[in-house]
Write a structure and sequence with these properties.
heterodimer, A: mainly alpha, Arp2/3 complex 21 kDa subunit ARPC3, about 0% strand, B: alpha/beta, Rossmann fold, 5 domains, six-stranded antiparallel β-sheet, 26 helices, 24 strands
Chain lengths: ~200, ~850
Amino acid sequence: MTAATQNVNFKWRVVDIAVASVIGVASSLVYWLVATLTYTPWSVLDAAVPGLPGIINGLWLFAGPLASIIVRKPGAGLYAEVVAAVLEALLGNIWGISTLYIALVQGLFAELGFAVFAYRKWNLQTTLLSGVLSALGCWGYSFFTNLQAISFTGSYGVVYLITTLLSGLVFAGVIVWYLYIAIAKTGALDKFASGREVRN
Amino acid sequence: MPNTTAPNPNHTNAPSRDTAADNATLTFDNWGYRHASRKHFAVRGLSLTIEAGQRVLLLGASGIGKSTILEGAAGLLGGDSQTVTADDGTTSQLDADGGVTEGRVLIDGTPVQQAHGRVGLVLQDPDAQAIFQRLGDNVAFGPENLNVPRDETWQRVARSLDAVGMTGVQLHRSVMHLSGGQMQRLALAGALAMRPGVLLLDEPTANLDPNGVEQIVDAVRGVLDRYHSTMVLVEHRAGPWIDMIDRVVVLGLETDDMQRARVAQTGDEDEVDRSGFRRTVVVADGTPDDVFRNPDLDFAELGIWVPAKYRRPGDEITRIHTADEPAYSARTGNGQVVLTTDDLAIGRAGKPIAEHIDLAFSSGQITALVGMNGAGKSTLSLTLAGLLEPVSGRVRASAELAAGADGDDPFAWKSTELASRISYVFQNPEHQFARGSVLEEVMLGPLRTGCDEEEAERRARELLTRFNLIQYAKANPYTLSGGEKRRLTVAASLAAAPRVLILDEPTFGQDRRTWMQIVTLIHSLRGDGVSIIVVTHDRELVTALGARLVELVPADTAGEWKTRGAAGANGVPAGTPQVVPVSAVNERTEAPKPSSRSKVIASMNPAFRLIGAMLASLPLLLSLDWVSASVALGLEAVILMAVGFTPWRIVKSTWPVWIGAPGSALAVLLYGKSGGATWWQWGMIHVTDRSAELALATAVRILAIGIPTIITVLGIDATDLADAFSQKLRLPDRFVYGGLAGMRLFSVLQDDWSALTASRRSRGLGDDNKFKAFFPQAFALLVLSIRRSTTLATAMEARGFGGDGPRSHARVSETHARDWVFLAVCLAIPVVALVCAGLAGTFAFLGGN
């Protein structure tokens, strides 16, 4: 790597915008496929087995950290989440425009993982942090909306917190990192510093 | 020199720009480009001038850098760059894409980056160039990016569509329903609307059927006659174009070790050997007559299909023959039938497009499934492959083929049973890749169908050697070139030793060299006794293979192959096709879709609908109590019924919240905040008076929040929403329209997902449990989506998108007084509900303690 490419360039190219938005779009397709497979049983299990729903929460969180680690511009994770949410709302899936609220929360929290290092550190650790923070946002959102009537410091709240964070760590952190490496190896990311880092 | 003071007529804008020449001169000045992560420059030291008004055909071997040259000429390379000085003092430009530029590209003497809109580029893939859902918006996009005023934009749209022969087409029509030829003409119209002085065409017909090729060639001819634009065409099959070409340029490489320029690839190599590469040179330049009659140029090695009038003996495609070829003919096979259809009806989603099909396929036979675009060739071939369920009737495997499997119906077979019997090679190789290396990719089939590791590797290495891919055994399949990817998919399919091999458009978009490799490969499989079915438009392919023809003929046409006969260029007929009648391919008109089931809601500005949904729902989160929730839900029901929704329609549109609400309520009932009498306690579960009341409030509130947020937003057109975001909310256009363009890919990616599912079944991966199979398939989808989005970015930049300058808006996002009334009504719902709760004394801030 030459010194020049390590300079941080925060200006978005068209390809940055296109890739971040399409990661959002592809993710919403994946979310939708997961939802159609799991939605009904999940809603019931949510109640019956405290903590279990938290375990798969991470599946809904990967768009933000993935877009961030690939595009590497401030706001990429938030942008991908918002594109996915608007698309889902227009398609009439699940929660209508409420998906936009949760997308904003999750996207912002995912951004935090990279923002605290001034968008200069792009490694497994920051990706894990991003995934976990995104999960924290997801958990907080649930208790602020649907689960206001449950004490978030009570045992259900704590179990739900732990499972959600674990799920975020795995699905939105570890898996996202190795997913990114695997995508980079296909050469699809050669126009990105993130892709060249893996391929060179 | 009497003329020195007169302006060059080619360089001035004539008063009437619509008809007079407005063409530009394109100059490469010692230009070069090295792509990110590449060792060698794709193009280097190129000096070439194309005079205004010239129509140039650019030729050169695969990998010589023709597409790079066009991208450079369109100003798509080297943006946002910084100067780097090498050890020897030469300077180059390192750009944000990681590429390196040397020298300059000039349009009428101006660096191309500053010559906005002077160059129009049409790419190979028609699907990749449609940026928006509605046809007219795609043509208006370029002028918008050039800040052309609204009225003029729509005039340009009409004129450009007229110029490509799409006069009077409905502007709101969805691009999803256009044929390849129409899509490509639309892309041409989109480029034309920018009024380019230079028109660049990068293999514009490679992905089209014969009818589509005719459409685009005619359209370009019309455009050149009208605008006299400078044109640069890159195309392997130059035949249909040749009478409008006045200059042919052949490129080669100059190397250190050789005096002579290296022109072609060697052997089976897909790319030109670049060792010692010094610069890109012009090896031949002149009129078509000069160049194509030049005996020193070997056009077959260059991958060029020589136009008919210049063909020499040996350029002609004739019936080919391969070693170990069996004695029986490819048209009949050895007579042992392996697959038959009995009164088969095919179609998707239960609707038949063709019925009463009775066909038989034999070992060693090659069948070509032909017919116009949209006739249903893929539907039939996927049904034959056991990947699509017959609508009625059946596909039957012979006793020999079915031996060991469960029954004789391929669709009912397990994925692993299918993989070792019938294999399907998809048109897009990336739909098929399932492993991280070329070797593993080929080992997959044998491993899934019961081979041990050692045998699988032996078989894989043998196939890779035969297909000349062994040197890439460890490479990632996605990183191979186009022709290599295609050979790999065939190798991987064969590895499971199927008795029937179905190939979908195996020669699409290939140059003559790669074409020859693939055709030879397919033909050589006859020796293995495989029954081969190719879905194709390619007449030369049918001739070369000596294949049996089966044509799908739509009810409203005479059929392309039936009427013209499938004669090869040498006049040897390939036989009368067996005809399968299918239902008509309808050219439909579309009514504009209403954006809501309620006329009132549909008339609102989309951004206001979105904000209204938020105003109606968000404040309800302030209090969790049954009074505010019930009042809000009641008001919503009354209002929605007043604007035209029936209660049943409301429930049907919002079904997910009706499942979600009881789910969350149950969680609250069991684990919610407790108080009052205890109903039941067990472990963490504690059901009390209070938790029951909160559960009820939670359920009702989820409905009260969910219903308006779904119903007010449902049906909004994405383009209208983007316009509102841009014009009413003043969000930056780059992000708004970048996001919108990404959204159009949703339906494309849905089709990708279906293809991925089918290809995994075909490769023996379909029996895994859903969860286990989900992740690799999601990975393949993400790779595809990123590839599609980088192409999308290129297409958008080619239309001038992404610059810092001002943009105009061809469509107006309107707001009226009723939009503000709508917001007020939306906000009134939670306000009234919360006031009621306050009066009733039930208000509980964020659910209370």
